[in-house]
């Protein structure tokens, strides 16, 4: 367990529960209201509010009548977006285009002594040693 937490920092310890809560609240809201319940069309309320948040013209009345699970899901999603730049999620926006055009890397062995030279000359062509 120590090996797993050694690569984590404080932002990970906040991010993972927040990300999990957002996903689980979204799944449970959909399951509770649309699979097992009578159905709820969030596209007429929550989506209108969310689109308004992005265009800087939110309609709070649109989300006020939404079921509690959808409201909690929206709140955790907003918290996730607020925490995004301060966590490792910021790396999702960096596309490594440099990898497509970088030169091929040649890895060499790091040895204290050079590798032995192998003579691939056939025995019939090898020079003849004469005894002195």
UniProtKB/TrEMBL annotation:
InterPro entries: Heme-iron_electron_transfer, NarG-like_domain, NarG-like_sf. Keywords: Cell membrane, Electron transport, Membrane, Oxidoreductase, Transmembrane, Transmembrane helix, Transport. It holds the Pfam family Nitrate_red_gam. It is a multi-pass membrane protein. Gene3D superfamilies: Transmembrane di-heme cytochromes, Chain C (1.20.950.20). Its main location: membrane. Residues 3-110 form the NarG-like domain. SUPFAM superfamilies: Respiratory nitrate reductase 1 gamma chain. The keyword Cell membrane applies. It is found in: Cell membrane. It comes from the Bacteria. This is NarG-like domain-containing protein.
């Amino acid at each position: 367990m120590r090996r797993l937490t050694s690569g984590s920092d404080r932002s990970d310890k906040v991010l993972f529960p927040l990300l999990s809560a957002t996903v689980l609240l979204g799944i449970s809201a959909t399951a509770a209201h649309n699979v097992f319940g009578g159905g709820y069309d969030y596209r007429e309320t929550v989506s209108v509010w969310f689109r308004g948040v992005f265009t800087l013209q939110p309609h709070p009345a649109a989300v006020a009548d939404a079921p509690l699970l959808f409201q909690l899901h929206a709140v955790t999603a907003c918290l996730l977006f607020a925490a995004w730049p301060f966590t490792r999620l910021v790396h999702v926006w960096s596309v490594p285009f440099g990898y497509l055009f970088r030169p091929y890397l040649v890895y060499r062995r790091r040895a204290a002594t050079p590798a032995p030279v192998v003579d691939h000359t056939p025995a019939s062509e090898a020079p003849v040693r004469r005894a002195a």
